[in-house]
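Sanity check

After download, print the first record. It should look like this:
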Amino acid sequence: MTTQDVQDDLPAPDTLELRAKLFRGLGDPSRLAILDALVSDERSVQEIVGHTGLGQPNASNHLRCLLDCGLVTRRSEGRFVRYRLADGRIADLIRDAGRLLASNANGVDTCRNYTG
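Expected structure tokens:
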């Protein structure tokens, strides 16, 4: 199998399906809380738990998901693992969502189509 064959098997980088999958991943409140915690700085699991109020096992499971999806990266620091956003554009997206909500929060809040 050539490199071109592998590339041909990959999805197009900007399809509606991939965008929808990205937003479904971001649509989970726990994962969004973790990403929000990482906007300003990298953090350990314990720091993420303190920032988000999630339980440690729950935070670890969501971090594994975010790591597998390429939204966060990790590095070892002694016996701790520190997580950070994989791309600064994720922080931009989270900040842009906050700015959008600042002007449209009432409409989003009263929307009955996308309830959890």
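If your output differs, re-run the checksum step. Summary of this record's structure: The CA atoms of residues 44 and 82 lie 4 Å apart.
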